[in-house]
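Most newcomers find our protein records easier to grasp once they have seen one. Sequence and backbone structure share a record, each on its own labelled line. To make this concrete, we reproduce a full record directly below:
***
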Amino acid sequence: MPPGSAVDLSPEELRRYAHEVSDWIADFIAGVESYPVLPDLKPGELSRGLSLAGPEHGDSMDEILADFREIIVPGCTQWNHPGFHAYFSNTGSGPGILAEALTAALNVNGMVWRTGPAVTEVELRACDWLRQWLALPEDFVGHIEDTASVSTLSALAAARHRGTEGRVRSEGLGALPPLRVYCSEEAHSSVQRAVVLLGMGLDHCRTIEVDRDFRMNPEALEEAIREDRRRGRLPIAVVATAGTTSTTSVDPIPAIADLCEREGLWLHVDAAYGGPMAIVPEYRWVLEGADRADSLVVNPHKWLFVPMDCSVLFCRHMNILREALSLVPPYLMTPEDDVARNLMDYGPALGRRFRGLKLWFVLRWYGLERLQNLLRKHVALAATFADWIDDAEDWERVAPTPMSTVLFRHRPAGLKDESVLREHNEGILTRVNAAGSSFTSHTEVRRGDRTIYALRMAVGNARTELRHLESFWKTLRESVC
């Protein structure tokens, strides 16, 4: 066949290269520790290995796979590495990887039930398994988005719709008083981003002070709502967090739920990271009071070993979510609309990937007991690391460790200047990450009028063992100078 005339790989070629790719994936997962966690690259350096112009006649798959191995893989930050301790570490597990390949082969768009019956019904069932394991009430219905940012955006769109009695959909924000959304100072930036994207204005996302354990202050929240009402603003929603990004603190959700019920506000709980802990009976405190929320987000791609991206938005008012987001042109109407769920009606995106398949695969393969044991193990590993910090001279923890993330810093005796301590710990971070065997990140913690620069170590990869933390701890101490 002349160059450029093939419309696809032949079945024989697909089989051959699929075998080659599957062998590479298995070898990669088995040997991922041989890669540096962070690539030794400068911005733009990888691009110099890529052709400036796309191929006119197409390249062979052998050439493409060779460049993948030699250029792309060395240029990746290895999130699957058990020494990845930055942000919230995660796992591209084998069952999830297989499901992703099958998802690509099926190439289904589940925007309406007719275009993807399996997409719709597998998603609903897998989300309901997760709901049961999290001990959430039956009226919570799950809907998969890509990330918690979009899940929170959707939840606040529903809150805006209910809080304005639907007027925002028809009349727009210009016809309404200024709207208000509340979250703690420790809430994820996606809350503020959602407020911006929904047109309410960044100034109308009001952050509430936190206590010494970095939990939202309900009394301050109540006063803020009272003040805003006096000034003619319209409070519509509160976002509480179960596992904040910096410190993994858990807001006092029961007290916040009481307030939201009295004030008629939508309560959204961001449990993207911390929520999975609630599948373990002794950790169920993480979601105490969340059963009274209007919506809640959990990210299986953070701590339930589902490959990126898979975020589950649970909502107990799916009719309001649909009213806020649905817009159905004639060409998308189907005979099943009155009896089937059309996934496109419950999120910003029209197109719908088969994300539920990888959630279904992972939940089925691991099962509840194995997932519970892994989460217990991760919490125990973080507690062990926290003990090392507490017992070590010149090292200190700077926040509680309720989950699997530890905040700490090196503080030489007698050194009190925060700017000098920041520079000192920034240097440690740079040297640790340059060593290649692990990757960690940083954050800032506010203590009164002080802002503390802290190193941040998270455990969340299914393959992380005690030996990886021992190696990380050794590298940390060697990086002090």
